[in-house]
Each structure stands twice: as C-alpha cells, then as structure tokens.
Amino acid sequence: MSQDHTKPAFKKLLQKLQEESWQLELLISGFAIFGLITIFEPISNSVKEAQNSQQIYKFVISLVAQISCAILIFNLVLHVLLRGLWIGALGLRYVSGDIDYEELNYSEKFTKYLKKRVGSFDRYIGTLENYCSIIFAISFLLIFYVLAITFTIVLIPLIAIYIIDSDWLPGLVSKGIGVPLMILLVIGMIITFIDFVTLGFLKKKKWISKIYFPIYWIFSFVTLSFLYRPLVYNFLDNKFGRRLSLILVPFYLFIFVLISVSYQNSNYINTNANSSDIMANLENYEDQLITNKKFTGAVTIQSKTITDPYLNVFLIFSENIEDRIFNFNPTLKPKDDRRGLHSNIQFNTTSNRSDNDSLRREYLRTFNTIYSVKIDSMSFSSDFVLSQNFKNELGFETYLNLDSISEGKHLLKVNRLRIRKGDTAQWIVGRIPFWYFKD
Fold it and tell me: Could you tell me the pTM of the whole model?
C-alpha cells in the first residue's frame, strides 16, 4: 500500500474516502463521547486517590488520562455540534438553495453589508466542513501533545533519581554526567517549546535552524513526534489550520481557568479545611467516609460520636512515612529500593522469612518511636500495627482505651518526630475532634 500512494487509483480512493469521512467521524465521535464520559469519573477518582496516598506513578498516569479524556470530550462534543449544524445546513440548502438577498428586500446598505460579511450559503457550508474536519483531526493530535509534554517532564526526575542520585555510579561520574544532561534537557525543552508555540519559527531562519536541528532530532524521539509528524505539518501548512490552532490554545487555557473557579461563601469558613479543635472534616471519620464516599484523610477514627469504650485510630500509609523511618533508622534502608513500578514475575523464589519478619518488627518499632498519640493532654503509648481499613488501604492501626476519659468533647492529637537541620522536633500529623458518651 505504501508504494501505491502515487497511483491515480489510490488518489481517487482517498478522494472518495474524504467525501464520505463525515459518517465515520460521527460514528467514532458518538461512541468515543459515551465511553469517555463513562470512564471520566473513575479516572478523576483515581487521580484523587493517588494524590491522597502520594503514589506518584499512579498520579502521573491517571492525571495524563484525565487531561486526555477532558480534551477529547470537549473537542468531540464540539465536533458533533458543528457536524450536526453542517448536516442541518445541507438539508436547508436542499429545500431553499442559496441565500437570495434580493428576495429579502432589505435596504441597499444592509444588502451590501450582508453580501460582504455573510456571503453565499455554500461558502458557509464549506467553512463548517473545514471546522469539523480540522477539529476532529486535532482532537487526537492534542493527545500526542499531552503525552509529549509528559514524557519530557518525566525525564527530569528520572535523570535526577537514576543518574545524579544513583548508587551504581561513582559520585563524580554521576554528577559529571547527570548535571550537564539535566541542563541540556531543560534548555532543549525551552527551545523546543518556543518553536512549538511559534509554529516552527526556529525552522525558518537559516542559521538558527542549523543550531536547532540536533535539538529537534533528539526531541523527536523524546516526544514521539516521529509518530504524528505528518499530521502536524499537514495541519500547519494550511492557513485555516494555523488560524484555528491559535484560537484553540488560548481557549483551552480559558476553559482550564474557568473550571478551577469556585464560589467562596465565607471569609473564615472553608469546607476543605483540615480537622482541628474547631473543625471536623468528614475525611477523618470512617462512618462519614462510607456514607459520603469521601477520600480518606491522613488519620481516621470510627466516628464523631464515640459510644464504644475504645477509640480506633488509623494512619494511612504513604511513601513519605517510609522515608521518615529510613531517616530515623538508616539500617532499615535496603541497598535496592523496590518501591515504584515493578513486575510480579519473580525468578528467585527463595527468601529468608525470619529475616523479613525481624525487619518488619524493627520497621514497626521505629514507626511507633516516631509517632505519638494524645487525647487532649493525656498521652497514650504508641502501639500501632500494620493493618488495612474498610477501603483496603494499607496503614497503621491502634486502639485507645477510653475508660479514663470523661464524657463530652475531646481532641485526638497525632504527632510525629521530625529531623530538621540536625534537630528533632514535634510535627502535627492530625487533630480530630470527637464526642465521647458512654453507652
């Protein structure tokens, strides 16, 4: 097929497909919109869950998927609306033909103005056709742009982690390679971005293009632009396409700002404020999380009103907790950090179970040394164990005896030790108010 593109028969086939492509466009758009709207909420929840549990890999993947879905939904809905208008215009043209300005019998001033500004009805139909085709094509091109930006940005932490801060390279070599590579990457990103927003300005100047070409060649692999480059240049060589791209980019930015706007009805009260002695956020009470489907806070208890003789305290796990444990107990830090993406396929099935159990005990002992619990001014011994909550989220759990607590309002305080500039200080993890009444 690649050898047939110059033959008249192939060009005739393409012409026929172009004329009938609107049917496929509508079919694809309809199914895509339905599917995207269906999965948008689960993806949005995945973004919030990953952010809440500080899972950076899941957060990046989910965020890219959410942005891609939002772009496709907006563009495809716009495409369907314009294509529907186009079909309606075709039907109207079949009934009444072109616009007859003489039949309207307007004054000479309005007739001249309308003939100049509105023109023929056929031109209007042709303009709608151009908008529909370009918007449909650019919808999927924008997804590649999102992926290109993501891959480029992700390279920065990858270089920092696996080259500059790597353990398998000598310090001088890792810094000598990693730092210049990081600087070149950032400079290349800025130059490539300038060329992108100026629609290829750096490619037009002879002496600049010679300098820019190696950067362009490298970033064509980083951004995977070699996969969609023909679509980009075919889009940019059309004046109508360039004009539409200049309109859409600011429009997307406007939509992004618009959806971030929210109404604030108080100068002092915010429903998203953390729990404290004057605020009870739903994210810290398990019964409220079940009813309202909110995301779990850093610390949770079973309810605002406690009638049991105990208080169930749960701390959700995050990678930051493990980093803090390593800071306080460096002997627990493994030579090979297995956190992050990995495969479940294992070739070495042998393991020393007793050593792993002893390390987990030391891990938990260090955690209980770092974290402390109080109710009002009364301290409780930290006796957390590894557990999972009702959402199957991994964390640390303990039970506090309330026999010595009086009835009424109380404040649970969870603190942790923090090392800063060589000094150890207390840091607030959570403050949760509750009301205790003996059953």
Answer: 0.69
